[in-house]
Fold:
Amino acid sequence: MRKIFCIFAAKFFDMPKYIYQRENWTSFTWDYCKIAVILGEVRNLQGKLSGTMNALGFSFKSEAMLETLTLDIMKSSEIEGERLNRKQVRSSIAKRLGLAIGGLNSIDRNIEGIVDMLLDATQNYTQDLSEDRLWGWHSALFPSGRSGMYKIEVGKYRTGEMQVVSGAMGQEKVHYEAIEARNVRKEMEEFINWVNENSQIDLVIKSAVAHLWFVTIHPFDDGNGRMARAISDMLLARSDGSSQRFYSMSNQILKERKKYYTTLEKTQHGDSDITLWLNWFLNCLKNALLNTETVLKSVFRKAEFWEKHKNTQINERQRLIINKLFDNFYGKLTSSKWAKMTKISSDTALRDIKDLIEKGILKQDEAGGRSTNYILRIY
Structure:
């Protein structure tokens, strides 16, 4: 009995704890029958979204892209527990894309770096991935050479060992121990070559595999999650055949964060069959595509409005205020506020307002208040 137990124990303790400890661990497999339907739904939704956006004018597509990229950067950082200034993120993106939105003059260096990384990934999606490119992204993410209070290795692969832990000090739970530092460069060479090769694998599937593969290597001291999502976005841009981004995977991952980490942990503790991970990723992407209408509701409403009023005579002052009303206008619109924003007299402002009321575009707010205020008619 003791001999049998010893043999069993030896076999048990020799079992790999993590996926990368298995021989040829990157020879990933999956049950295509279990993901075929959801992959088809994702591809169909990508096509529909592309058709919807192509029907919009250039300015609305630019606005939708600005909104999507802002959301993507905000949410990717929020997954890591970091909340960014939305106005600074939006202004930084607009400046780099050449969009005139009256941006801020002062933007934090770390925000500039995060924006640089995502835009390089998505706008230059046809370019090969390289060690130098990844190191540049990492340097952009941590311009001060620190992550919070801690000094980290920046712009190069980590030289120390890495654990993913949670919990209070003294009560930490180890979720994952990454590949040994001495093996990182070799593993990354294989990963980069795979990303760049022209294989028969569907690019949406490739995006999912790349995300898993990169975070499993965990090649940097910090920023691995954000970089994995940037690589994933780069491959999704390839799958769309476009640098124009109209859906945010990071926003959806944040909503499904608990399931994301659970699925990732199970997969990293499993074998090379990653069907579970692919199924989660594709469903998350499907939800991201379905939520696009909600995210871009203001853009779609504005486009619909201007299509309806393409032959209506509207002056530039009126156009300016109408667009602001679609963009979550702060406070109540009064004639005095109109005059101040457009730099005209109160009498001229009131004439502008009355003209839009007669055209059925504005109406007096029934809620009232100290002074008369106006709102858009709901179409």
Residues 32-54 form the longest helix (23 residues). Confidence is low (pLDDT under 50) at residues 1-13. The two ends are 80 Å apart (CA to CA). The chain has 17 helices and six strands.
